[in-house]
Amino acid sequence: MGDAYDYNILQENPKQLHQEFRKYISDISDGLKQSDDNKNALDEYITDELARMVYGSNMIEVAGGGVDITLKLCKDVFRGKELPEEINERDEDYHDLKIHLLNKNLPSGHEAILRSRREIVQHAEAARYMIDQVCIKGKDLSHKIISEAHGILTYKIDLGDTPWPYYSGVYRTWNVRCGSHVFMDESKVPAAMRDMIDELDSDIKKATEEGQIDPVVLASKYCHKFVNIHPFADGNGRMCRLILNALLLKYSGGFICIGQDGQDRQEYLRIAVAASVEEGSQSQETGAANYKQLASFTLRHARDSMRKVRQLFKRDA
C-alpha cells in the first residue's frame, strides 16, 4: 500500500489513514441500517457536499460563481428541478453572479453572467449524469460516458472564438498546452484514451479477482492519466475531478470536495503541475510515482469526508 502514496504529503501513515477511512465507511453503513432519519440526513448531506464539490472544482478553474449561488443552483439540479437556460437582470441570481464577477475583477456583462451561471448548472448536470451512469446504474466508465459528460459540462459554453458545438463532447483536433507544458499531440489522443479505458478495466478486473481494491489509488491513477492525456480542448480539469469522484464513490461509497479554499486549491494545483512534469519527462518511467502525491492528497480528503458523515450520524443519534 505504501508504495502508492507519498509520505511527505500525508505526514501520516497511509495504512492508518486507510484503516480510519474504512472504519468510518463501516460505521456509516451500520448507521444507515439503524434509522431512516440517518438516511434522510445523509441524503441532505450528500446533496450539499456534491454542490460544494462543483464549487471547489469551478474555483480551481476560475469558473462559475460564488459559494452561495453555486450551492443554490446545484441543489436545484441534484433535486431534479428544471432550470431555465437563460435569466435576465430581474432575476435574483443574476445580481448575485454579477457581484461575484465584479469582486473577482472578471468581465461582468450580460454574456459573462450567463456563462458564469452555465458553468455552475452544466457542471452539476455533468456530475449528476456521471454519478447516475457509473455509480447508480453501475456501468463501467467508458468513452461514451466521458464524452457525454463533457458534452453536458460544456453545453453552450464557447471556447474563445470557437463555438461550443465544435469542441463539446469530442476529442480535440488541435494541440494544447498549460504554461510551458505541452500535452500529447492531438493525433495520439484517441489511442491514448482507448488504452486508458482498457487499463482501467484490467485494473478493476484484477482487483476484483484478488478481492483487494484500493479505491483511492484507482481513482487518483485515472484522474491523473486522463488529465495528462488532456483529450478535450477545454474542461479537462473539471472532467478529471468528476472521474476521480465517480470512481471513488462507486468503489468506496464516498467522494471528496477539492478546492474549497485558496490553500487547498494551491496544494492541489502544485501536485497536478508536478505530476504533469513527471509524466512528460523522458527520464521518468510512468508509474505510481506520477500520481502518488495525488493519491495521498485524495486519501486525506476521503478520510476527513467520511469522518464528517459519521459525526453527522452521531449528532442525529
UniProtKB/TrEMBL annotation:
GO molecular function of the protein, one example?
Answer: ATP binding
What Pfam families does the record point to?
A: Fic (PF02661)
Q: Kindly give the InterPro entries that the UniProt entry links to this protein.
A: Fido, Fido-like_dom_sf, Fido_containing
Q: Which UniProt keywords apply?
A: ATP-binding, Nucleotide-binding
Catalytic center at which residues?
A: 230
Q: Where is the Fido domain?
A: 141-300
Record Gene3D superfamilies: Fido-like domain (1.10.3290.10)
Positions contributing to ATP binding: 234-241
This protein's name: Fido domain-containing protein
